[in-house]
Amino acid sequence: MTVESSSEGTFNDSDLFDANAILSNDEVDALLSAINEGDVVVGGGKAGDSKAHRIRPYDFRQVSRLSRVDKQRLQYIHESAALNIGSAMSMYLRGLVECRLIALEEISYRNFADSITNNVHVVVINIKPMDGLGLILMDMDIVLNIIDKSLGGPGVYSSSEGVLTEVESTIINSIIRDVLISDGLAVSWKENVELNWTIDRTEADMRVVQIARDEELMMSANFAIDGDLGFGRMVVCLPFTGIESFLVAPTDREEIQDKELTSRDLKKGLDSVPLKLDALLGNTVITVSDLFKLRCGDVIRLDNNAKKPLVINVEGRNKYFCRLGMKHKRKATQIESVIGEV
Questions:
Q1: Are residues 113 and 201 located together in one domain of the fold?
Q2: Looking at the DSSP assignment, which residues form a beta bridge with residue 99?
């Protein structure tokens, strides 16, 4: 699998990826060998090279939506996942397996899909309650070596077949589910949020996989796997909109939840507050002498026309227009409109 790096929101300053070139399989193997032997340092040039970092192009059309704190948190999550994956794979396969995080990127789905050029095993994952689908991609060579090692072989698969059989697909998917996800990714993410990782389906060709719109932003975590299985690449691609809401620190999330609970309690208390509501027939002005002259049967003329709607007053404020009527043998009013919206 060859992954062409993009300048879209790269998290680190690594010079391992050239935005204008696609490496061949041999070049990828040579690069990973150099990293393993210490000839190349991740995040810089050759060991001992004191030259300043090269100027990298910046795409102003794709501004990073992550703060420095969010980037550091994601970096920590995936570095922890790399350690967990290496440890879990070593125990499962009874051999030395190392997994290291190479880079994290913010990249559009179209550019990500276009960068996958070689034969890979693609696993589409469903992560609840996160919105959208994610991907786990592995070099087919490393996949075949894992299958061979899990079946008691040396971990060097001799077949040149590029498509997995049904049995092989079942074996590698079980390892991805029970080892890479359960003991690796899920454990590292659990410190921030409890996620339910499930495998949706698998594919052998990235060109037939469309889990997001072309312009949708994705987060790509690139891992290098080496050791007894040889050298290979694994990529975890997650929808950016899905993980964005989970990047809030646990303490901040607790404060937000407390505020939401307080807001709900206040709303619940306000809903039960009694209010005085009056239906006003109308108004008139009389003198004090006329008031004292009133007797039973006298008629007082109001300023409101009998054909016009009445006013409902809520706690001293005119709120609605209504009509008088009867319901269940009791006088009632029917609201016709809100005052101010007529």
A1: yes
A2: 225
Give the bridge partners for 46, in sequence order.
40
Q: Look at residue 42 and tell me whether its pLDDT is greater than 60.
A: no
Hey, is 60 helix, strand or coil?
A: coil
Which residues, listed in sequence order, are joined to residue 222 by a DSSP beta bridge?
Answer: 103, 235
Give the ranges where 154-229 is alpha helix by DSSP (H).
166-175, 186-190
d(CA 196, CA 31): 35
Q: List the structure tokens of 126.
A: 């469903």
Which structural domain range is residue 226 located in?
60-252
What does the mean pLDDT of the chain come to?
77
Helices 68-93 & 140-150, crossing angle to 10 degrees?
40
- Residue 314, domain CATH: 2.30.330.10
Q: What Å distances lie between residue 242 and 12, 129, 138, CA to CA?
A: 22, 9, 22
In this prediction the pTM is 0.54
120 within domain boundaries = yes
Q: Look-up: residue for tokens 């919206």?
A: 341
Determine the Cα–Cα distance for residues 184 and 181; give it in Å rounded to an integer.
5
| Closest C-alpha among 230, 223, 339 to residue 280 | 339
pLDDT per residue as tens digits for the range 267-303: 878 888 888 888 888 888 888 888 888 889 888 888 8
Find, among 134, 130, 243, 113, the residue nearest to 199 by Cα. 134
At 180, which CATH number? 3.40.1550.10
3 state DSSP class of 106:
strand
Please identify which residue in the block is written with the tokens 């016709």: 336
Q: Look up tokens 């994956």; give the residue.
A: 85
Structure tokens at 193: 């949020």
Cα 295 to its chain centre, rounded Å, is 76
Handedness of CA 36, 38, 41, 46 (dihedral sign): negative
